[in-house]
Amino acid sequence: MDVRSLHKYMELDQVNSISVSTGDIQVLVLSSKYPGIYFRSCDQSSFTATMMHGDALALTQRIPFWKSKFKKGPSLHWLWTTPLLVIALREQGALRELNIQVSSGSARITDIDVRKLGCKVIAGSLRIQYSSCEFAAFSLTNSSVVSTSLKVKEGCSVSASLSRMVLTGSFQTENGYQIRSNNGSLRLGSQRLSGTVVEEKPGTPLYVVESDNSRVEIL
User: Are 207 and 156 in contact (CB under 8 A)?
Assistant: First the structure.
């Protein structure tokens, strides 16, 4: 995507930490030579942007567009076609922290390198592609998260309820895990588990998974 074709709202050269809270607007976060916040089909009046501590940005959606009309489920076919909000991070240097909270909406993250990645998804969807972080934390409720080649260096925590999560290209045999799973299905590499499971194995990075009536696959 050429972000220069979009409406630019804010520069991000000096920002090291970003927090995004969105409802039904589609969000795309990617690495680009042209860092900044860009809009398509919506404008700056849709969000409140607050600078904190000089290098931290909090971006919050003001008024949901469609939530009052109908409730969207986690399987949305139009998720990755026309993101309305695009956050372009600088290509060189890792962002210190990226937190994304999605409620009844969708987000996509691609080709980024951060130290800490936090994702909270409620009745929504999240897709991650070709990204890396030192630590990752996922909280899912009635949601879907699909990741391709997310490289976690130190540790990853997953809390899932009534959800589906698939991480491919992430798990190696030397990785450790701590598992608490209730009435769901779980796969770690070639190991398949189902029902109520409590298991652990030392290793780095460490995957901590708490799952309730969910399908979790870390491959």
Answer: yes
Residue 117 sits at the vertex; the CA angle it makes with 116 and 121, to the nearest 5 degrees, is: 150
- Residue 78 confidence (pLDDT): 45
Indicate the pTM of the whole model: 0.90
Query: Which residues have a Cβ under 8 Å from the Cβ of 183 and sit 6 or more positions away?
Result: 195, 196, 212, 213
Q: How many CB atoms lie within 10 A of CB 38?
A: 22
Strand, helix or coil at 78? coil
pLDDT tier for residue 195 given thresholds of 50, 70 and 90: confident
CB atoms within 10 A of CB 198: 9
Q: What is the spatial distance between Cα 109 and Cα 18, in angstroms, rounded to a whole number?
A: 13
Would you give the distance in Å from CA 85 to the centre of its chain?
A: 15
- Token pair of 129 as six digits: 């592609």
- Type of residue at 148: T
Residue 213 amino acid letter? N
pLDDT of residue 83: 76
Cα–Cα distance measured from residue 166 to residue 203, given in angstroms and rounded to the nearest whole number: 21
Residue 77 confidence (pLDDT) above 90: no
Whose CA is closest to 50, among 1, 4, 10, 5? Answer: 10
The Cα 31–Cα 12 span in angstroms is 12
Residue 66 pLDDT more than 60? Answer: no
If 0-12 CB within 10 Å is exposed, 13-18 middle and 19+ buried, where does residue 170 land? Answer: buried
- What one-letter code names the amino acid at 215? R
